[in-house]
């Protein structure tokens, strides 16, 4: 892998990113600091520059309180001296003691994230999950962070088409910083979570899409199959549910066919299909170990034929 991979523009922002975002949810959870550094080093060496984290990662793990992933990432940036080479995305709204999108909370959470990351500015700041806060309040709070130079661009995860439209309209009307990207749950076995009204709003406004669960909790790697013994992993249960759906096995079969034709792993095909969807800039995928990274990187640049895309479209419909 060389470091000269193409970059893609992130929506209407001036951010230029590698077409695969490295998920930081495993840092400080299933990957300790040493393992996390190794994965980050390998990703950067391959030309990767877009790392996705959140203040809530990984508060669910025993003994953790949240902020572990940001802390690991901050330690890595400091030890490698490469802050300027990396686009850091983090999120606000789902950490228990920093919950919700109220203005005061957004400001306090941003300061916490800046401190843990050890940076002066967050490149991409997501509202992690929509709530009932008026759009006027959170859009204005995000705009203030941009004006203060603490955030470069803002984005939204887990938001409806209606609320996204409302937030964009308010920002436009008031001349405030507008969302440049969305981060929806979207993959070959979960198309309805994005396609339709939300995808239409994103396309209409020139936003970028950065899908999470790009590999459906590991299901699209092909390691969970009908009749196979459960694979020991923190995500096996999440992946298993896709086998029970009619399209699950059909998608695996199509992935196997295309993977064999391309001489790559199923995960690479699943990511390539996603990366080629309208508005998608960079699917998010995480790796616990350096060994898990190569198929993800291959997926960032793999080109599928129209026939292969049609096969996957039909299996996942």
From TrEMBL:
Pfam families found in the cross-reference section: Aldo_ket_red (PF00248)
UniProt GO MF annotations: oxidoreductase activity
Upper classification of the organism: Bacteria, Bacillati, Actinomycetota, Actinomycetes, Kitasatosporales
Alphabetical list of InterPro entries matching this protein: AKR_Detox_Biosynth, NAD(P)_OxRdtase_dom_sf, NADP_OxRdtase_dom
Protein name: Aldo/keto reductase
Keyword annotations of the record: Oxidoreductase
PANTHER family: NADH-SPECIFIC METHYLGLYOXAL REDUCTASE-RELATED, OXIDOREDUCTASE-RELATED
Signal peptide: none
Domain NADP-dependent oxidoreductase: 20-315
CDD domains, sorted: AKR_AKR9C1
Record GO cellular component, one term: cytosol
